[in-house]
């Protein structure tokens, strides 16, 4: 990883441990019990946090990616950060010569109008899309987004997360034929938090 990206990664780790990570007794969206909880929204919805996530995700997107998407609500700020930052970098004649449109996947079809599951620009069939996630536990939330996009004739081959809780998500994605990478593991956060 380039020195500048290493520094940005360290800054994001600090923000996550300061504003997103908590220890205690929690029940997760998956139904699992946990002695810690990670709520990335205070970070991903802050100016610095959104910038850091956008920059690091842009650096880790697979080469074939042409758009990014994610399941509402956790992925909304991630998709926007990557989309906006990729457009801004193109304006600045940055070596990142690609902008990435973003799609938001609803959990339920819209109850009016087009009743769409997918919000955003219409992209050509088989457009390669990377799924963005804040925290991966079992991987089932991201799989919902993958299934909706594949049903709409898009190509989804990868998932990129901020934090992997290492609770089966990697295996879930492998079974679905998806590449998976995360910026951090839960051990990264716990080690930094408890130092």
From TrEMBL:
Gene3D superfamilies: 3.40.50.2020. Pathway: Pyrimidine metabolism; UMP biosynthesis via de novo pathway; UMP from orotate: step 1/2. InterPro entries: OPRT (IPR023031), Or_phspho_trans_dom (IPR004467), PRTase-like (IPR029057), PRTase_dom (IPR000836). Keywords: Glycosyltransferase, Magnesium, Pyrimidine biosynthesis, Transferase. It is an enzyme of class 2 (transferase). It catalyses: orotidine 5'-phosphate + diphosphate = orotate + 5-phospho-alpha-D-ribose 1-diphosphate. Orotate binds at residues 137, 165. One of its GO terms (molecular function) is orotate phosphoribosyltransferase activity. 5-phospho-alpha-D-ribose 1-diphosphate binds at residues 106-107, 110, 112, 133-141. CDD domains: PRTases_typeI. Its EC number is 2.4.2.10. Its cofactor is Mg(2+). Homodimer. Belongs to the purine/pyrimidine phosphoribosyltransferase family. PyrE subfamily. NCBIfam families: pyrE (TIGR00336). Catalyzes the transfer of a ribosyl phosphate group from 5-phosphoribose 1-diphosphate to orotate, leading to the formation of orotidine monophosphate (OMP). This is Orotate phosphoribosyltransferase. The gene is pyrE.
